[in-house]
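Researcher: Sequence of DNA primase follows. Predict its structure.
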Amino acid sequence: MIPQSFITDLLNRVDIVDVVGRYVQLKKGGANFMGLCPFHNEKSPSFTVSPTKQFYHCFGCGAHGTSIGFLIEYSGMGFVDAVKDLAQNVGMVVPEADDKIAPAQRAANQAQSLALTDAMTQACDFYRGQLRGADNAIAYLKKRGLTGEVAARFGMGYAPSGWDSLKAVFPDYDALALVEAGLVIDKVDEDGGNKKRYDRFRERIMFPIRNTKGQVIGFGGRVLDQGEPKYLNSPETPLFQKGFELYGLFEARQAIRDAGYVLVTEGYMDVVALAQLGFPQAVATLGTACTSTHVQKLLRQTDSVIFSFDGDRAGRKAARRALEACLPQVSDNKAIKFLFLPTEHDPDSFVRERGFEAFEQEINEAMPLSQFLLREVAGENDLTTPEGRARAQFDAKSLLQAMAPTSLRLQIVRGLASMTQSTPAEIETLFELAKPVSVARRAPPRKGRPQPVGLELQILRILVAHPPLCFELDEAALQCFDFFGAESAQRLRQLVATGQALGPNGGFAAFSQHLKEAGVEYDSLIAEIASEPESDLDAVKLWLSGAVRQIKLDALKLELNQLFSSGLTSDQIGVRYREITAMQEELRREIAADMTQR
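Model: Prediction complete. Tokens:
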């Protein structure tokens, strides 16, 4: 069982606009994003995604839910698979059970994550400030044709030459978090005695690497002149894993949706330069070969991925590695292509020399994956000889076995069969290729439910929409819920306890996901909240406190009406009467004070 605390943390980290945007074309519409509902046929958009609530809702068919719910319904994943899928994209590891990680250890892990994130943010701000006064760095960027506007958009900065410049940012320069974040290096003498700490990045243009939430998780630093390494990346840290992250993806998300494809380049400067030259849909791997996880991440953003490589030997080698990374992720509704530029050009120089339209034409004419694969296995083999054809089949075997049993694989098999004078059936038998067995799963239909009414359910609505307000209800407030009756009071108290268990940072998405797992009791209420505009938290907080006071007044009034038939002595009645009237007067004063604040 996955701990609820992990689900809450996960839903606080992922961005539902990103999750849904991988599958649905979304456009900004006021505070929300709009698109055509993927769960029923419609011609005008009634599907909304709220970045504030981290929730989606369709006004047409009633479908609604969190990022987890969307993956479950759209792709047919199970709950655990959906959680793992989302967690992988934000660098989280799903615990298998509550007892695997002690609460104290989980709290320590969260505290470490916050400390590292804070350190990276402060360092990024420092580097950005340093760039404004670094004439040599500004001159270099201008020489590369970059403007201050694009540098600001990507948060670029400059690491000065000093060995410990970050002391100006971090008074506690010896803090462990600086090493764990990869900002500094500890060098220990050979005898293990003295330890010297110094900044990892010095005299470099700094490229902050952001995750999908926009948080800085790492840096890439480029030397201004000659020097090695030309690019220096942050090391692997609890926040940053190179095989999972792509430079520029956070900045390019909307441009990728608008363009309908993502362009994968080989470096930071390519991404920044292309964004300035009219191709903001570009991203880059982080000094490492493209991984299958990278491809999976990109295909969730768009249906079309285009890799751009230099036409030299190194570029061809990188393209082959990218091809191998792509094969496990290939599907019939996605397109992957490969673009090879002339050997003397990278994307930046090509666009500057030949222009926007010429590069756009290169993109449009990029080589499909199927064609590139067949060209790779053909290689320099002499296909006029049995040995050459056999070698081509040998080279193709592992590539085709890495692919799922899709229609595209069948097309490639047919192409290979034609090229090697074989039949598709012979190749499938020879390569032991599995036959297609997967069946697409459809989202279950949604059913409407009666809308909740009454003061009790209005309180439920407020608490579900704003879980932190559960902490505003003390024991006296919980006791006053008895006025609604035993079952209602129990339901309210259980809801408050659940909301408090989420912690002070629990949001609507995490709360609704938990309630959905428990049953369908709150489904219609969640749908109603999802369909409404975001409510003002301060106003809602005032309403809730007023509602609780009104319930207390009503309960006191009922007790007062029943006081003389309660069986108490006249003295006891007199004492209780004065207590009730005093409490009523105090509550009326508090209600009046609330009214003046509204």
